[in-house]
Design a protein that fits this description.
Elements (H helix, E strand, L loop, with lengths): L3 E8 L8 E7 L5 H16 L6 H16 L4 H14 L5 H10 L2 H6 L1
Antiparallel strand pairs: 1-2
Length: 111
């Protein structure tokens, strides 16, 4: 049974690990407790390795596409570099793609 109309997750770019959040928009009429139980059940399956590892490749491709599209113009590039410089150092831009590509299924299950 589908209990949500949308689910989203994000982590803000910082040099150090930071808050990772998950937002779920539940269906009207479905109790919050049922929606939360479904979310925690799905997270437990991921933790136990009971998920389709093809989703990792899809997520990596989506993140890389978003990363490249976020830098279409010089203004976009300046914004990304400025944000990185304000959070840590602008050179982190060189680390993003290799770090995303380095994520393995075992990493997802571990954390």
């Amino acid at each position: 049974e589908q209990v949500a109309t949308d689910i989203d997750a994000a982590c803000f770019e910082t040099e150090q690990p930071y808050l990772f959040w998950i937002a779920v928009d539940g269906h009207t009429g479905i109790p919050l407790a049922q929606t939360e139980a479904a979310l925690f059940s799905a997270l437990e399956k991921v933790q136990n390795g009971e998920w389709d590892f093809a989703h990792l490749t899809k997520a990596q491709n989506q993140m890389l596409t978003d990363f490249y599209l976020s830098q279409e113009t010089a203004e976009d590039q300046a914004e990304v570099l400025g944000e990185l410089a304000s959070l840590a150092r602008w050179q982190l831009i060189h680390d993003f793609v290799p770090q995303i590509q380095a994520v393995k299924a075992e990493d997802i299950t571990r954390v």
